[in-house]
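Figure 6 in text form: structure in, sequence out.
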């Protein structure tokens, strides 16, 4: 079937074309991930429930150094997203209540991902890794206990798996 010129060009999907190399082969190396976290170029996206944090500016900056991110609020979870031009990128989860409290700060933008995407509140290259961080951190928040036996699970593989110490089940986030 020929293309329909009356429909115009296909819209650009903001959550595609991530610049991040997921570097999945590094996830199982806890010492390697720790070394990446100490890299001067390491940075993190901070997510508190449905809220994404960014420093206000023109444009707003959603990347924080790991020290800055950890100083905002106590991290609930940290995941390794991959490498952006060799620079390590992480997602750091904070409690939703902590994100809500941070709304009072004049230097921070604390808002939902839809608003960020629709209003263009950050540079477009940040949308895919922010969405990925939010999705995986949300999965962690909802899957702390084993679906097989109910035991508390632990995070492994830089945040891309949860293991049950009781029944030895491995749990993975949906990535489709």
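Output sequence:
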């Amino acid at each position: 079937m020929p293309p329909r010129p009356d429909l115009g060009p296909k819209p650009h999907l903001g959550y595609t074309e991530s610049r991040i190399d997921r570097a999945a082969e590094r996830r199982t190396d806890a010492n390697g991930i720790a070394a990446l976290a100490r890299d001067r170029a390491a940075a993190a996206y901070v997510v508190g429930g449905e809220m994404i944090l960014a420093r206000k500016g023109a444009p707003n900056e959603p990347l924080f150094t790991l020290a800055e991110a950890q100083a905002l609020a106590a991290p609930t979870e940290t995941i390794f997203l991959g490498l952006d031009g060799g620079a390590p990128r992480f997602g750091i989860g904070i409690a939703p209540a902590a994100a809500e409290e941070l709304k009072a700060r004049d230097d921070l933008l604390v808002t939902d991902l839809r608003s960020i995407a629709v209003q263009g509140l950050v540079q477009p290259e940040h949308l895919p890794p922010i969405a990925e961080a939010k999705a995986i951190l949300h999965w962690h928040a909802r899957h702390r206990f084993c679906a097989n036996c109910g035991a508390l699970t632990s995070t492994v593989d830089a945040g891309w798996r949860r293991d049950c110490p009781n029944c030895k089940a491995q749990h993975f986030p949906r990535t489709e």
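Caption detail: The longest helix spans residues 127-142.
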